[in-house]
Amino acid sequence: MSHLLAIGATGMLEGALRTLAYGFEEVTHVARRATDFELNSALPVNADWADAQEFLTALNVALFDRTPVSDALVWAHDAGDRSVMGLLMGMPEGARVVHVHGAADSDPAGRIDSWRAMCAERLRYTAVVLGRVRGGSSYRDLTHEEICDGVLRAWRTERDVSVGEIG
Amino acid sequence: MIQCVGWSVPSSVALGLSAILLAVSIGMTAGVLGALRPNSALDIGTLIIALVGISLPSFVIGTGLLFVFPVWLGWGAVGSWGRMVDVVLPALTLSLPFAAYIARLTRMGMIEQLDSDYIRTARAKGCPESKVITKHALRNAFLPVLSYLGPALAFAMTGSFVVETVFNIPGLGQHFVAGVQNKDLFMIMGVTLIFAALLIVMNLVVDVLYRVVDPRIT
């Protein structure tokens, strides 16, 4: 049984999530307003990663009678680190995690190493780092399509992907 | 009464609009600069200037400006009205208290917005800082300022009698003061009605503009 757990992903990762959701028998979608987001037969769970305790409780209740999570797509800001940490700790061995990091103004290599070390050999951890795109003399932000392409590439290859320029 | 008001409305409208334009420019710039580095010397400096702007009465600021610019430095003329340059000092005097409030509202709004998740997401996606500030944060931080601008504009156009007296401007306020002194009930009622009408119209304009600034508002 394959079970996808998506954290956030209602905005810029919407395209990637919708594409990935087709390939899974079960999908659990956790976001602040997950119930407002129509995603096939996914189980929507409303929870905010800013409050780790509330988030993990909601997640545990939602996953209690479902098959173990086999894959996870995670997008959360630094404020949600504790929630993500709790989530990764509870994932079954051998599960795949694709973690999206923002890095417009600093290289998150150190942070990614910490996350990878935490997953150790228990989880298959892949990082997607979002950068920016140079357009003439200035920079522009990434489009949702560019971000989703990067996530899907990381998902396919299971290798870290940088989208745009970092640093 | 109608003739008197008709003559004085253009002067009051010119003064009020100039003052509000100046207030928005000064206030929003100060508010944004303060919010970008909260509790820095620049932030504290703008807050102190805002406090002074709110606390000092218009006749003190107006007299001070008249003393410094036309009298001391010889720039402009005292009691002159009719040229473009004559609007500058009265508009600046009238704008300072408004600018002070706008600076505070902008600062508070910007600090709140810059700490929001959508701003972090915009930055994470590589959005340039200038765009983060102007397109994302300032747009939402502007809403409280917009609410304040409606009544402020009505007040600036009709309630500037102190500034009009100090700078000898033939505006609505002078007629209001003369009406009170001469117990001219019709004049007082006329000016009050204009103020009330302006207040209603400006609030309506603000409500419409709210929808333009933030399409989510219904």
Please characterize this protein's 3D structure.
The complex is a heterodimer of chains A (167) and B (218). Chain A has 167 residues and is of the alpha/beta class. Chain A has a single domain (3-162), classed as NAD(P)-binding Rossmann-like Domain (Rossmann fold). Chain A has five helices and nine strands, in the order βαββαβαβαβββαβ. In chain A, the strands form two sheets. Chain A has a seven-stranded parallel β-sheet with strand order 3-2-1-4-5-6-9, sandwiched between helices. In chain A, helix 4 (109-119) links the parallel strand 5 and strand 6 (124-130). The longest helix of chain A has 14 residues, at 144-157. The longest helix of chain B has 35 residues, at 2-36. Chain B is 81% helix and 0% strand. Chain B is mainly alpha-helical and 218 residues long. Chain B contains nine helices and no strands. The model of chain B has no long low-confidence stretch (mean pLDDT 88). Chain A binds chain B through residues 11-12, 77-79, 101-105, 130-133, 138-142, 147, 164-165, and chain B through 117, 120-128, 131.
Amino-to-carboxy terminus distance of chain B:
41 Å
Please count the beta strands of chain A (DSSP E, at least 2 residues each).
9
What class would the helix/strand composition of chain A place it in? alpha/beta
CATH top level of chain A? Alpha Beta
- Give a quick account of the main beta sheet of chain B: strands, pairing sense, barrel closure: none
CATH topology term of chain A: Rossmann fold
Main beta-sheet strand count, sense and barrel state of chain A: 7 strands, parallel
Terminal CA distance of chain A: 40 Å
What is the assigned CATH homologous superfamily of chain A? NAD(P)-binding Rossmann-like Domain
Strand order of the largest sheet of chain A: 3-2-1-4-5-6-9
Strand content of chain B: under 5%
Write down the Rg of chain A. 15 Å
Radius of gyration of chain B equals 20 Å
Shape of chain A from CA axes? Answer: globular
* C-alpha geometry of chain B: globular
